[in-house]
Amino acid sequence: MNKYQALCNLRSLLRTMEQDLGLDDLSHTELDIFLAAQSIGGKCGAIITTTELRAHDLVASFPPATYHRALRALVERGYLRKADGAKAKSYVLEHG
What we know:
Layout: H1 3-20, H2 28-41, E1 47-49, H3 50-55, H4 64-76, E2 80-82, E3 90-93
Antiparallel strand pairs: 1-3, 2-3
Helix pairs in contact: 2-4
């Protein structure tokens, strides 16, 4: 098996996992932001700041407009919600 075949197999496995978890309807950007939030928060109800999200490896390279559009979509779809009473821009992880 060459290196490209191994990558193809891994990619196929990831897509299957995304489908099994019901994440296959998310855009690439939305998925990366959601997975970064999962990595930072780790459980449902965890509070994640935009500073933490923007610094995460999966998210850091996104242009600001793309990031904000995808973040808004995740809130609208119920994956994240704005944290009540937080001083900084913070979100609560709704799926964990």
